[in-house]
Design goal:
Helix content is 25%, strand content 25%. With 432 residues, it is of the alpha+beta class. The strands form four sheets. It has a seven-stranded mixed β-sheet. Strands 14-15-13-16 form a four-stranded antiparallel β-sheet. The chain is globular and about 70 Å long.
């Protein structure tokens, strides 16, 4: 089950997702599509070039399944996937050996390969389109949980979504007989705009299943055996990534593990949440045909850890094609400190409006991202009040900044004008 402090996932105290198929051939787990774009799929070699490029706009191939734009951005009343999100499909930063996300993934692989030789199966190319059942039901997310809302999740249609977490593949892998596995992938969440939040990020989940032969000779019960093994494993991983650091375990609650824990390390003079984990709820194992087993699961957000290990100050940088960023990192070199190359100033613009009952901040951020893209650095609520008539006003400050160049006044003014128009027409608010 994957976690990130910056992005909500299934392991969190405050939210089930704080931070966070159907194809029968291969482990793609994609929903089968009735129609595909006629053009050729994205060649795999293009995904690994030093000068990384955006994916082909009309069709992609993920997990062995072709995905056309019309398959993701459907003419369906429940579809809320914008162009800015479709453009990130197929980028697969975690599969690039010279990218900080890929370097970190490989460092974690190295730990498991050394500590558990030939034990853990690794999956990093599973299709991000999954069913609602896989994304929520299979990991025991309550039917009324906020994470299922269209405000939080990207829906393709009423029954399929862009995965919110790599945990969406857990049940299928268990049913297919895998007992030790790591799943890494890009995940999607409608979210706020600031230096640590982005609607696409990367997670890794680890699962280990035990049989009665494993714990019966230990003299402890199955749950205690699994919990002890889990903590030993993850303490070793923390030492592998961060060196000899002080650690502490925090008891917490998740609906899919019991007991549940968070691991924190004392790093750079402060306590840092590294991951969430726990002993898998028996109901999940039972549904996967493993009634006599126990298991543990952990999850971590790769951006969260990479920002700390590489001193990367803004999550948008992970998506930069600027060679001043990409050239700083090398395969196998974990923890190279990023040298900032941009000191371009931000430009602030305020927007005020009377909200309605359906207004949400995530919807506002989607509008801003759709117009400004990664030029939007932050959207911050700076003032709100309710008048005598019961009408509520919000004032947001939008920070525009390029990581690569100075923005002109004309550019900023045009962006802000378009934001104002779209906020009013799409969100049905009244500008002030």
């Amino acid at each position: 089950m994957a976690i990130s402090h910056a992005h909500a996932t299934l392991f969190s105290r405050t939210s089930l997702f704080l931070s966070r198929n159907s194809c029968r051939s291969s482990l793609a787990f994609c929903i089968p599509f009735s129609t595909f774009a006629a053009s050729s799929s994205l060649p795999s070699d293009k995904l690994h070039r030093n000068k990384w490029r955006s994916p082909v706009a009309s069709v992609l191939e993920l997990g062995g399944v072709k995905i056309g734009r019309e398959d993701v951005m459907r003419d369906d009343p429940t579809n809320n996937v914008p162009d800015t999100i479709f453009s990130k499909l197929g980028m697969q930063l975690h599969r690039r050996d010279q990218h900080p996300i890929g370097i970190l993934k490989n460092a974690i692989y190295e730990y498991f390969d050394t500590s558990y030789p030939n034990k853990f199966d690794k999956f990093d190319d599973l299709c991000p389109i999954v069913t609602v059942k896989q994304n929520f039901d299979d990991v025991l997310v309550p039917a009324d949980h906020v994470s299922r809302s269209y405000n939080d999740t990207y829906y393709i249609d009423a029954q399929s979504v862009l995965r919110c977490h790599t945990s969406a593949h857990q049940a299928e892998l268990l049913r297919r007989g895998h007992t030790h596995f790591l799943v890494t992938g890009d995940v999607y969440r409608r979210d706020s705009i600031d230096s640590t939040h982005y609607p696409v990020f990367h997670q890794m989940e680890g699962v280990r299943v035990f049989s009665p032969d494993d714990w019966e000779a230990s003299g402890v019960d199955a749950t205690s055996y699994a919990a002890e093994d889990l903590k030993k494993c993850l303490e070793g991983l923390a030492n592998h990534l961060f060196g000899a650091v002080e650690m502490r375990w925090i008891d917490t609650y998740f609906p899919f593990t019991n007991p549940s824990f968070e691991l924190e390390i004392y790093f750079q003079e402060k306590w840092l949440e590294v991951l969430g984990c726990g002993v898998t709820e028996q109901e999940i194992l039972k549904r996967s045909g493993k009634t006599n087993n126990v298991a543990w699961a952990f999850g971590l957000g790769l951006e969260r850890l990479a920002m700390v290990l590489f001193d990367i100050p803004d999550i948008r940088l992970f998506w930069s094609n600027d060679e001043r960023f990409t050239s700083q990192f090398s395969k196998g070199q974990l923890g190279i400190k990023f040298k900032p190359f941009s000191k371009y100033p931000p430009c602030y613009k305020d927007i005020s409006f009377w909200i309605n009952e359906s207004f949400t901040e995530n919807n506002l951020c989607e509008v801003v991202r759709g117009i400004a893209g990664d030029l939007a650095e932050e959207v911050l609520l700076i003032d709100n009040f309710t008048n005598k008539k019961g009408m509520t006003s919000h004032c947001y400050r939008i920070a525009y900044r390029s990581m690569e160049r100075s923005l002109t006044d004309d550019e900023i003014n045009e962006l802000q004008w378009n934001v104002r128009e779209q906020v009013q027409s799409k969100l049905n608010v009244v500008l002030r």
